[in-house]
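Researcher: Quick test of sequence recovery. Tokens follow.
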């Protein structure tokens, strides 16, 4: 039997940097879900943390949810967490904009 690992679903929105180097959400962006995979590098620390997808898309985490190991194939695995984060104010604003319940 293969080794099981903890799986978490991360709901986030793609971000880019503006000319001043600040993270911004592109107009019209939608929420998407990813999950930790067997080879995901780094660790999740807080909402607003950024991670890279396997296609090198930068995503800001706005919500998390544990996932049963057997159900993990419903979501695409992510590549790695970064040490970068959005400001707390921006996280609150985005969670309100996308109607995510406070946790």
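Model:
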């Amino acid at each position: 039997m293969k080794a099981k690992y903890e799986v978490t679903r991360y709901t986030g929105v793609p971000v880019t940097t503006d000319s001043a180097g600040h993270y911004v959400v592109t107009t019209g962006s939608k929420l998407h879900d990813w999950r930790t995979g067997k080879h995901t590098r780094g660790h999740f620390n807080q909402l607003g943390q950024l991670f890279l997808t396997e296609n090198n898309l930068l995503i800001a985490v706005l919500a998390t949810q544990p996932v049963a190991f057997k159900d993990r194939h419903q979501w695409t695995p992510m590549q790695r967490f970064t040490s970068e984060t959005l400001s707390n104010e921006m996280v609150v604003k985005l969670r309100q904009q996308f109607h995510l319940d406070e946790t």
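The two ends are 35 Å apart (CA to CA).
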